[in-house]
Every structure is written in structure tokens, then in C-alpha cells.
Write a structure and sequence with these properties.
By secondary structure, the chain is of the alpha+beta class. It has two helices and three strands. It has a three-stranded antiparallel sheet with strand order 1-2-3.
Amino acid sequence: MEQEPNSLERGSAPGTSVDNEAGEVSAEEGMVVMDGPASTSLTMTPEVARLTGERLCSAADDAERQASDLKPR
């Protein structure tokens, strides 16, 4: 069975973009608040923020390996 192309191969979904700037993160009243582009905001418990951070780091490592594999040798 042929594998479906990823979203980058298909093109971005309508209304989405790739961000080149990191969001701002702060702790407020016992919660973690992340402010991103286009006035987006996300509030998380410390536990969820920590898990999200770990997942972001893991995905960033994967993405760097993928990008490296795509470079011509």
C-alpha cells in the first residue's frame, strides 16, 4: 500500500503557516502561558507544559534528522 505524503509534500493546510520565531512563555498564577504568532495563546498546567516541552524537543530532533536526510550529498 502506498504511503500518503506528509503535509509538507501536499502543501500547508489553508490558514496555516510555518513559524520562524519562537513563542513567548511565562508562568502566571501557577499555570504556564505560551503566546505565539497571530495573537494565539495557550495556558497549560505545569505537568502538561513539561510533557509538551519534551514532545516538542523530541519532534525538533526528528525534524532536524529529516531535514538532514533531504539535503543533497
